[in-house]
Amino acid sequence: MPALFVVATMKLAQKDSNGYFTKIVATIALAAFVLNITMLGRIFNIPPSENAFLLWAIFATLLAYATGARMLLGLGIILLAAFIGAKSGTWSGMYWLSFGDRPEHFFLASVIIFGLSFIPHRYFMDFLPIYRTFGTLLALLPILVLANWGYVSYLSFPIETIENFYQIGGFVLSAMIIFLGVKKGVE
User: Residue 37 domain-assigned?
Assistant: First the structure.
């Protein structure tokens, strides 16, 4: 089914002038791909793995660039962040499904995704703000969580110290991002 929807997406891309229906069919292709991979894992009794996030992220990103769909790019970025967070969780000794228990796992994904916004895009200039927005959110949301619930941090300081550290860090990082945006004149 995903292959049929990808073919339908490419056919619609040639005929659809504003791309509305193309993007809908591309989103359905992504949903069918996710379901296929999930069902294949269940049929063949393959244990769940964080690597599926990477596969889904690649598929969503390829569809986004093929159709110019910013929503699909956002989904691809979220899936990539989940993969990086789960992988860094397993590197720290956690079971991969518990990667959300420690918000620091998303800092690496934030740096990588925000860094992708500095790669020049000749034809997809409207994708750059998506990378910057998600990169910023992937840094500031874990900081917000850690500033209020310091006990979920990897740091081994008193909880109040951890919370104060992340509160100050969130303020400084927000100010730096605002300064960078104003100075560069970016969205």
Answer: no
Q: Considering only CA atoms, which of 4, 15, 129 is closest in space to residue 67?
A: 15
The one-letter code for the residue type at 43 is: I
| Three-state SS at 44 | coil
Q: Which of 94, 96, 95 is nearest to 86 (CA)?
A: 96
* Residue (of 27, 85, 31) closest to 54 by Cα position: 85
Domain-located, residue 20: no
User: What one-character DSSP code corresponds to residue 48?
Assistant: P
Structure confidence by residue, pLDDT tens digits, 111-151: 999 988 888 878 888 888 899 999 999 999 999 999 998 88
**Helices vs. strands in the chain: H and E counts, helices first:** 7, 0
Extract the tokens encoding 141.
């949301």
Q: Which residues contact 112 (CB under 8 A, 6 or more apart)?
A: 80, 84, 135
Range of the domain at 168: 48-184
CB 25 within 8 A of CB 2: no
The whole-model pTM stands at 0.86
Q: Is the dihedral of CA 19, 27, 84, 136 positive or negative?
A: positive
Number of structural domains the chain divides into = 1
